[in-house]
From TrEMBL:
InterPro entries: 6hp_glycosidase-like_sf, Glyco_hydro_47, Glycosyl_Hydrolase_47, Seven-hairpin_glycosidases. PANTHER family: ENDOPLASMIC RETICULUM MANNOSIDASE MNL2-RELATED (PTHR11742:SF103), MANNOSYL-OLIGOSACCHARIDE ALPHA-1,2-MANNOSIDASE-RELATED (PTHR11742). One of its GO terms (molecular function) is calcium ion binding. One of its GO terms (cellular component) is membrane. It comes from the Eukaryota. Keywords: Disulfide bond, Glycosidase, Hydrolase, Membrane, Transmembrane, Transmembrane helix. Gene3D superfamilies: 1.50.10.10. This is alpha-1,2-Mannosidase. Its cofactor is Ca(2+). GO terms for biological process: carbohydrate metabolic process; ERAD pathway. Pathway: Protein modification; protein glycosylation. The chain crosses the membrane at residues 12-32.
Amino acid sequence: MSLTKLVRSCIRRLRSVVILVITVSLLFYYTFENELDMLNSKAENEYTPSINAGSRLEDKSGVLDVQRDVISERTRLLATDLKVLHEKNRYFPLLVSEPSKDPSKLLETFNDLNLNALGTYRERYPVLNEASLPVSREDGPEFRIQSESFEDGGLEDAEMLSKIRELFVNSWSQQELIEKVSEYDWPLSLIDSLDSLYMMGQVEKFDNAVKVICNIDFTLPPLSVEIIDLSDVGSRALGGLLSAYELSMNNGLLEKAIEVANFLLRAFDTPNRVPLLQYFWKSKLNNKFPYKNSDVGHLTSLTLEFIKLSQLTHKNKYYDAAQRVYRTILSSLDEFDLEHLFPVQLDASGCSLISSDKVQEGKHLTDLNGMKSIDENLQLIHCQQTGKLVSLSDNGVRCEQLFNMDASSQSTFSNLMKSYQLLQGNDILQIIDDQHITKQDRASSFDGENTKFQGFPTKVGDFRDLHSSKQVFLKAMESVKDLMAFSPSTPLNENITLISSLKTKRRVSPATNELHVEVTRNYDMKFERCSLASILVLGSKVFGKPDYINFASNLTSGCFQLMQLFGGLQPSELYMDPCENTDCSFDSKLKMERANDGLYYHTDSSSTDIAVINGKNTNEAQQTIVIFAAKQGPSIYEVGDLEVDVQSKQWKNDPQRPLWVNKMGPMGLLAPNAIEAVFYLYRITGDTKWRTMGREMFKTTVDNLQNVNVGAKGVWKVNELHENGHGLASSVWLSQTLKYFYLLFSDSSYLSFDEYVFTAGGHLLSTTE
Ligand SMILES: *[C@@H]1O[C@H](CO)[C@@H](O)[C@H](O)[C@H]1NC(C)=O
Ligand SMILES: *[C@@H]1O[C@H](CO)[C@@H](O)[C@H](O)[C@H]1NC(C)=O
């Protein structure tokens, strides 16, 4: 009796326990499914298909002259190999140097595409604790950016506006952007031009374009698109949609912007949450580190758009993505040859390879935060995750580094500064409170081995003396001023300021234990560097640095005068000699002598140190000294055609090129950078001379357009020069060049810098909520 009772009650109790146990095990099972998979995979042998990506690609192209059965045999082989690779890739990320080496390309032909699978995306490296968007501060700085007073431009400026508007409308119609909308690609150029349409009062065209755009699905790209260029789509599609939304308050545009952004976030799903700049969105091999050869400016290219989107949607995920990239950059400030500057190409994977000896010793599991990965030759390797951006190296030897201030290098710093404005004085480089940090750290150490995220310093104390955006920005600009600014020798007989690119080499001097960083200026010029002036002059206000205005204004004048020398055209690049006399005038006799003496031929660049320009301690033991290489000037690069014909005083192999120019790229006409600088200087200084300069630039641009593109009955098309007249105007002509011209002559309170930031792609985002 009592026994049966006991048994019954036992069963009753057990039942609930059993249910509980089942539930818990199920939960456990699902939660740790990945980890279990991973363990299983480790038990397998470590075979990866040892095919070589290059030779397989050749196989595909050589298919025509091979017997059919051979083909199918190869295809089958390739397919099985790829299947194995795909299986391995589920656990081990690919570490690839650049998109062209990406095995994802191999999979293109074997894409048994599953649309449903593409539509739903499950993150591999989910963020466990999102950084939250800082709340705007009551006591935040008030940004007074624009000049207090402007002269009234009167009728003359009104006339300019109508001329610019007319040219815009003609160009816009010529490009047939709406007509060209197709199901095969996203209409990036059309979106890019939306806000300009709106500003110039083209209501009907704007509404039509919006209608077309709102009917497009942006949750996934059209299937015909293989690769997504993250910074291009971010700048034109996301930036363009947000800007048009800010102006028109059309909610459809915001919805589309959210679709684009949610899709782009997929490219951030990498072990260190640094994005893949070229994103093979359909690829099954989607477990990947960011490419080793990455452009740091492009890594930050979505910053402003993502901040704005978080502000508009109150969702932190966008802000978090942008912030992680900047915090990785922050940990990498002294990784490269010039502190606070970043070489044009760097290794965004942050991987440092662990030698097989160390792996044998088991170090990869203990000290080194190792992650088993697959390299581009499809071999298994172990990567130590440094959480930084690191120098590119060639078999362990650090490569020579190239620094410049081209558009994308600038954007690292301009996005940082503008994010400070957009966040109303909150700093994207700073974490809000200590509690937040500790939570984050706990989260990252809890992560499984292969998803361990070590992007940030781990001790709370490390955050205390974090660099601020202001400090990072100012230090970088100081280096630009000290190292990159130069005066060229030109026929202008004037000391103008331009920005050169730099090459660096490092040497350790064992005697003194000093690290010598040898800097060589290339004395080159690109017009896209002119927009650095707009960053400097804006920075002078945002971070309170009045002397930057002079520098910006000298740089802009330099760009303008150089354009004048070329009749209003802009050579894509230009190599010159440095100024050697008081008025920097060009001495043709001296030049001929030197050229014919072979001075410009490449010689062995053994050098002696001439000037110490900057000393600092990286750590106690080693002092870093930055020096200019003794050999400066064009002789540092190898050119074959620097011989002058003494009779005609012309370059022998290129008589068209002026004698003071050592090398020159094709001429352009439509680029926005010079007028962008002029526009910023006008709005910020209020000096009428900038409008005068802008007027001159517009006139020469139109004259040139008419000259090179004359058609019947005075009808002319807007074409860029350097594609031999066949090239259509690029998207920037409408989204930037004409926009800056227009705003230069508009009422200065219209879209004021006190209320808006302009993205690098020329789109505006309001700094007030
Ligand atoms: C700008 O140019 C003026 C005149 O050439 C010169 O006096 C001044 O030092 C320059 N400023 C900077 C910051 O380069
Ligand atoms: C040209 O101007 C720059 C900046 O103002 C100055 O540093 C440099 O010494 C000047 N060069 C000459 C030759 O006067």
